[in-house]
Structure to design on (187 residues):
């Protein structure tokens, strides 16, 4: 019975997880410190209807602390900071990758507009899939999202944009990239 309850709670947390609706500004103690990316998973700590205090967990590289990403193996971007500042996040523990580089498992609490949070991840995925298929099928057969890894997708899409094969608004580019990373093959 305990296992069934745990499974139900896990499934509900995945199906109804809070994510960022669009790239949006993050604040720390009322001051803008960067941007949080669309589809970044969050934990809502407090919500007054206008602003929400949210927690983001991920990793940062010891030598480049301007970016929170999902994990050492998955470079999906969560937060981009304007400046390196030790107050931007709390270090949970030190990690080392296969090349001997040091990373930190971190968490940070930030304020964002409450309207920029959604639980409807499927709506975002449907929109992203539509944009991806419409944009990319104009020139070639559309690759399945699991044709590449989460770390390969951003460069693949950016190369098409750099060659002027695809024109996408910045928000659409972020959405499509995240959609592909979420559905990419695992290594």
């Amino acid at each position: 019975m305990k296992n069934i309850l745990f499974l139900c709670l896990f499934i509900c947390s995945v199906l109804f997880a809070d994510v960022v609706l669009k790239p949006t500004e993050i604040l720390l103690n009322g001051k803008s410190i960067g941007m949080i990316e669309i589809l970044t998973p969050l934990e809502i700590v407090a919500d007054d209807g206008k602003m929400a205090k949210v927690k983001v967990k991920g990793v940062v590289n010891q030598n480049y602390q301007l970016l929170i990403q999902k994990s050492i193996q998955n470079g999906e971007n969560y937060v981009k900071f304007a400046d390196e500042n030790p107050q931007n996040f709390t270090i949970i523990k030190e990690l080392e990758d296969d090349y001997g580089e040091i990373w930190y498992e971190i968490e940070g609490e930030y304020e964002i507009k409450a309207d920029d949070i959604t639980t409807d991840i499927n709506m975002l995925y449907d929109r992203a899939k539509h944009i991806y298929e419409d944009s990319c099928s104009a020139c070639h057969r559309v690759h399945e999202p699991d044709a590449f890894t989460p770390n390969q997708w951003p460069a693949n899409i950016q190369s098409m944009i750099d060659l002027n094969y695809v024109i996408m608004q910045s928000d659409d580019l972020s959405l499509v990239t995240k959609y592909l990373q979420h559905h990419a093959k695992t290594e």
About this structure: Confidence is low (pLDDT under 50) at residues 5-16. The chain has four helices and ten strands. The first strand starts at residue 18 and ends at 20.
